[in-house]
Amino acid sequence: MQQRLAELERENAELRLFRAAFDMAAEAVAVCGPDWRLLVVNPAFTAITGFLPEEVCGRHAEMLYASLGDGTFLVEVDEHLRRGSSWEGEVWSRRKTGEPYRQSLSVACEHDMRGGPSRHVLMFRDVSEARDNAEKLWRHSNYDTLTELPNRGLLLDRLLQALVLAGRENCRAALLFIGLDGFKTINDTLGMTVGDMVLRESALRFGRCLRKGDTLGRFGGDEFIAVLPHIDTIDEVEAVVRTILESLQEPLLIEANQILLSCSIGISLWPGDGEDVETLMRNSSSALEHAKAAGRGTFRFFTPTMDARAQARSRLAGELSEALEHNEFSLVFQPVVNLADGSVGGAEALLRWQNRYIGAVNPDQFVPLAEEMGLILPIGEWLTLAACREAKAWQQAGLGDLRIAINVSPRQVQQTDIATTLRRALDESGLSPRLVTVEITESLILNSGTEIIRKLERVRDLGARIAVDDFGTGYASLSYLKHFPVDILKIDRSFVSEALNNADDARLIEAIIALGHSLGMKVVGEGVETRQQQAFLVERGCDLAQGYRFSPPLSAERFRDFVRNFEPQQP
User: Where do the EAL domain residues begin and end (predicted)?
Assistant: First the structure.
């Protein structure tokens, strides 16, 4: 008898332990009979679902999953349990309030002596927050936060899928590389907030132009990519492309600003324009560059000629990165003449590159490339020092105090302390700063803030002068000049060449000379090639001139000979 009582006490202790575990479990537990009617639930069940035990016990467990569709979810689980002892998965359910949530659910079945179900045990936990966080992380990793379009990584994946689909269905795929024209100007003049709004509006307009199944994504900056996965004819591609171009014909209304915008598009096709994702991307980018060069607001299909140019550009970039190390750069000097008395006042230092394999490379080719690659900074430092050394050598050779003009790129001014660079060159060469003119571009004036002005003022504080090169070709307001430390205006050669035949160009030159003199500046006429052009500038009071009328750019030795033997060219 005592032994039986001890066994009962032990069983009761086990039951209390199991009950405590049942009540204290963090996961919801619901026990159902063979007909799936709920028999008992634990407190975690109530905490997750909101249902009290008396509200659910006796009811069919399908009530928890009625929102899944046709009400046959547990029937399907039952079918599975006949082939095994458990089922696991994630499902949607609803709380008592009607709020949907995600369950990580496992169902186990206890069988009776005959092998039939005697009880079903459901255990689940709420994984809504964890899944939402995972989805947010996935979206953040795969979508652009500004436009909510697929980002570069997801785009490349979609492109790969499009190529696989095209190969399987024996059709073609197209890749459109879309670049907004003049977007930097919008950012610089209206601010980045407006620029972001322009990107979002452009994304919306482009998205409405695509077919069902196409993918639009933001590649970065002001560039978008469209993947067209099922192409039967080139006409289909052109139809989409023209719709995209036309989508920007209507001005964008952004914060009361009516913004006229256009885009250019480069197109590559598979198969034909590359066998892999990387090649297609490179070739469509090359086609985009040609579309922009053709006048913008247009499109270009990739051609093998473009690829050859892209490969040549890639080789040029490789050689350019080692040009300084191999001492391949040199300077030539174009004389600058005083128009009042015909004397040589100095020279403009111009950069030249003689590559050991390619030979002479045109500055129009390598200077923009150096800008893109960030090499213009060390190259600019080399040029500044070399030019100052040569100007000092002119003095030592008895040629007098000739001025040296040094071109600096906007990036040099924006990303470095140009005054420190110049001072270092002056200290090393021994040249007086009063003989140095630093030439900046008109675009730098347009895009400058107070920091750029301070940098230029420090250059002037050294004793050097500031010149604006190619003046008249940009969009700078003339009123900007009075706020900038500018000493010299250089009239662009395009105006000088047409001054005798074009009344508008003649009047513009007269206006620039008058403006410069009214602000106490000197004015230089560039590209003077004829006696008549020289006479035109003299009559209008232009101070200085340079061009083939006097001399082409010369090597250092030939420039010295030029100065020694120079005879004034009378108009």
Answer: 313-567
